């Protein structure tokens, strides 16, 4: 899991689709396209969080501090 350091987000007003590119701490870009208005809003709100991570399956995750909780 890598921390998202920055992102570019845009909305195609003609096609009514959102686009997002997130860049992780390894400087790897992760692109998300053809987002619905609801998906776009959700991702935009998520990216406002202080710490956002992305995993190998392209899940964007917030509220996770990078440590496993021991039972």
Describe this structure in words.
This protein is mostly beta strands and 71 residues long. The chain has one helix and five strands; from the N terminus they run βββαββ. Strands 3-2-1-4-5 form a five-stranded antiparallel beta sheet. Strand 2 and strand 3 (29-35) form a beta hairpin. The radius of gyration is 13 Å and the shape is globular. 10% of the residues are buried.
**Strands across the major sheet, in which order?**
3-2-1-4-5
Overall pLDDT: 90
Based on Cα principal axes, name the global outline.
globular
- What is the overall number of helices? 1
**Low-confidence regions:** none
Total separate domains: 1
> Could you spell the SSE succession in H and E letters?
EEEHEE
Q: What's the quaternary structure here?
A: single chain
Radius of gyration from CA coordinates: 13 Å
Structural class: mainly beta
Largest pleated sheet: 5 strands, antiparallel
Strand content of the residues, in percent?
over 45%
Classify the helix fraction into a percent range: 10-25%
Distance between the termini: 21 Å
Question: What is the β-strand count?
Answer: 5
